[in-house]
Design goal:
By secondary structure, this protein is of the alpha/beta class. It is built from 12 helices and 9 strands. The strands form 2 sheets. Strands 1, 2, 3, 4, 7, 8 and 9 form a 7-stranded mixed β-sheet that branches. It has a two-stranded parallel sheet with strand order 5-6. β5, α9 and β6 form a beta-alpha-beta unit. The protein is elongated and about 100 Å long.
Length: about 300
């Protein structure tokens, strides 16, 4: 195999096209001596003179030089096509479906971090509850899903990327402050009026599963409202509508500012999985594969 570099071919082709070592050097941001060195190395490897030296014309290719130029241009065009394919892949738009908590608390940071590593990446984000994300993946309207529920392993590749802690939140008043100091848990407060998520929410399903393990029937709870948005739930709780069970990820700002109080549901805590998933019959592109690896690596650091 001939030891010919693309830089040698590029330099020779530029000199042939511009008819000048000087102009080729300017075009390639090289010194004239470097251009001459690359072309001499190419001639030595091929064992042929490519440029007439000492001819009356300022610059002229030999017959062999013209044949090598044609071959060099063909190689360089093919390499440019490969580079364009790579850049196109890096500019590819990724279609992501996400449930509410990951959409608000995780994906903005994940997408921003990935974009710094892959500036050409683009996103189309579809948001819904976990059941709606499942439907988006099934229908092909999203290729990757991030949601608070596991999916059928026969149909989907599903990786748990983090565990999300569920907590009970209350308004910040003297009564709940006293209960918190006394070591009350969320289970101790379930006689209070409650605001719940919509029934198709992954959070709500995880909450009901947890209550069943404690032999608490969901129908025994005093649910005064169902809301599909954590922001609306937090506003309702802070205004004294009732308590609610919500992702700990979604209330960090409210806890820091004292708008809400939080209680662990039980001493050992309550958790649900956050998963990244795609259909088994979907072949992820190289960029999508890199995004999945990035999410799996970075999400645990954000929870």
């Amino acid at each position: 195999m001939l030891e010919i570099s693309l830089r040698q071919l590029e330099t020779f082709a530029a000199a042939a096209e511009y008819g000048s070592f000087t102009r080729a050097a300017e075009r390639l941001h090289l010194t004239q001596s470097t251009v001459s060195m690359h072309i001499q190395a190419l001639e030595q490897t091929l064992g042929a003179q490519l440029i007439l030296r000492g001819a009356r014309k300022k610059f002229a290719l030999t017959e062999e030089g013209r044949r090598v130029y044609a071959a060099a241009r063909d190689i360089l065009v093919r390499c440019e096509a490969l580079q364009e394919m790579r850049e196109s892949a890096n500019r590819e738009t990724m279609s992501i479906g996400t449930s509410t908590v990951p959409a608000q608390s995780l994906l903005p940071r994940l997408m921003a971090g990935f974009l710094k590593q892959h500036p050409g990446a683009r996103y189309v984000l579809r948001r819904g509850d976990s059941e709606e994300v499942h439907a988006l993946l099934e229908q092909g309207e999203a290729r990757i899903g991030l949601l608070g529920a596991t999916l059928d392993a026969r149909r989907f590749v599903c990786h748990t990327v983090a565990q999300d802690r569920l907590v009970l939140i209350t308004e910040n008043n003297e009564r709940f402050q006293k209960l918190q100091k006394e070591g009350a848990t969320g289970v101790d407060l379930l006689a209070e009026p409650m605001i719940a998520r919509e029934e198709s929410s992954g959070t709500q399903r995880a909450v009901e599963d947890y209550f069943r393990r404690w032999n608490i029937a969901p129908e025994s709870l005093r649910i005064v409202a169902r809301m599909d948005n954590p922001e609306s739930i937090k506003a309702g709780v802070s205004q004294g509508m009732g308590i609610s069970v919500i992702s700990n990820l979604a209330i960090q700002e409210e806890l820091a500012t004292g708008r809400l109080l939080s209680f662990d549901l039980a001493p050992d805590g309550a958790y649900r999985d956050i998963c990244i998933a795609w259909r088994r019959d979907t072949a992820l592109t190289p960029l999508e594969q890199r995004f999945v690896r990035y999410v799996r690596m970075e999400t645990p650091k954000l929870v």
